[in-house]
Amino acid sequence: MRVNRDESFPPRVSVLIPVYNREAYVETCIRSAMRQTVRNIEIVIVDNASTDGTWPILERLVAEDRRIRIFRNERNLGAVPNWRRCMEEARAPIGKLLFSDDTIREDYLERTLPWLDREDVGFVFSAVRIGTDAQEREGGGLWYQPYSQDGVYASAEFIQGGLEHGARFPVSPGCALIRLADMKRNLRLSLPGAQITDFDRHGAGSDLLLYLLTATQYPCFGYVREPLCFFRHHPGSITVNDPQGHIQRSYQEAKGWFRREILACAVTAGVGLAPADREACAAWIQQGEGLFAAGDPSGAETVFLRVLESDPGSAVAKNNLGVLYHQRGDYPLALRYLTEALEHDAADRNLVLNTCAVLRQLGEARTAVNLLGAYLQQKP
To answer: Which of 149, 129, 148 is nearest to 139 (CA)?
Structure first.
């Protein structure tokens, strides 16, 4: 079943809301999409054969806003096939998955959409607040803030961070904006050879792979540090109601599949997955250092990030970025690059001294002394 109120205007973004038995939350979710300051959007909602009062709410809201298009599956398809149904019904070039128990701030699209004007950016995500119903207005916990500034960053960094456990990079596409063609191409309902066979039922793993596979196809991604999304923590959420740990095992299985089938095969060049061209990287580093010395830190930053796209382990590029961000005053980001560089070359004197300088700026003088002492002890 489908209810379409308007077929005339060309939307720039399709907000995709898959829903099943969310009568308590779906109206709040939809109204957050309706309030977007970017107006030329469509809101595509697919009810996955709900058995509660979800559908009457959708019928009422579609009468309020001509941008809303609602559809109803005759039977429950499973979570991920319903995401795909949303994508199939979408008409815009860019898609925004918005899960039916979450909300987005009214300026979400205004803040994220410009980053996709760049052809080298595969997706953009914002930080997120996660909390209970009572915390929706108050805030909740802050997640997904890997950087201290809005900007464009190397996809290789997202791949590395996404494969690690932690809260620095998202797994849910509910905070992301992605081109619709990429969403359709990279959404996986199943993984060949995987022990877990129900990815399509819950989406844990399929969501992360949507990011990771898209990241292999573009050199960069966009990031907005301010939390523009609210993820609701409630007993009906699959990530909350998981007493057997099946969701976490699904994520581990998806990460293992990606490492085995994508990284190991190096099917994509240009984002650090193919063997690095060492001579080219050396030339880029020389170019970046020249730009930095000539007073062009932005140009140098672009070149050093380009090195990391081809060689994510380059300690020289990370050291240079650490110095650059130190001078810019972005001490946390400087420390992250310098610390990663130390993991590859802890015996480099300049690298150690650069790291100690940043630690002192962060008030970590004792840690700086310990680092310098460890360096001196290993010298002959």
So the answer is: 129
What's the rounded Cα separation, in Å, for the pair 218 and 124?
Answer: 12
Please, are residues 145 and 127 in contact by the beta-carbon 8 Å criterion?
A: yes
Q: What is the mean pLDDT of residues 320-341?
A: 89
Q: Which run of H or of E encompasses 366?
A: helix 365-378
With b for 16 or more beta-carbon neighbours within 10 A and e for fewer, the 271-291 pattern comes to bbbeebeeeebeebbebbbeb
Helix, strand, or coil (residue 273): coil
Q: How far apart are CA 258 and CA 76, in angstroms?
A: 28
Collapsing DSSP to helix, strand or coil, 274 comes out as: coil
Task: Return d(Cα 183, Cα 192) in angstroms, integer.
Answer: 19
Judge whether residue 222 has pLDDT over 80.
yes
Q: What is the dihedral of CA 246, 143, 109, 89, to 10 degrees?
A: 0
State the DSSP H helix or E strand holding residue 8, giving kind and residue range, or none if neither: none
Please spell the DSSP secondary structure of 154-190, one letter per residue: EHHHHHHHHHSSSSSS-S-GGGEEEEHHHHHHH--S-
- At position 45, the amino acid (one-letter code) is I
User: What span, in angstroms and rounded, lies between the C-alpha atoms of 158 and 175?
Assistant: 15
Q: Concatenate the DSSP letters of all residues of 114-138 into one string.
A: GGGGSTTEEEEEEEEEEE-GGGTTT
Three-class DSSP category at 18: strand
DSSP for 332-355 reads: HHHHHHHHHHHHH-TT-HHHHHHH
Residues in a beta bridge with 143: 128
End-to-end CA distance of the chain: 77
Q: What is the pLDDT of residues 11-35, one digit of tens each?
A: 999 999 999 999 999 999 999 999 9
Three-state SS at 3: strand
- The DSSP secondary-structure symbol of 275 reads P
Mean model confidence pLDDT for the chain: 86
Q: What is the pLDDT of residue 242?
A: 58
Residues 6 or more apart whose CB falls under 8 angstroms from that of 61 comprise: 27, 30, 31, 68
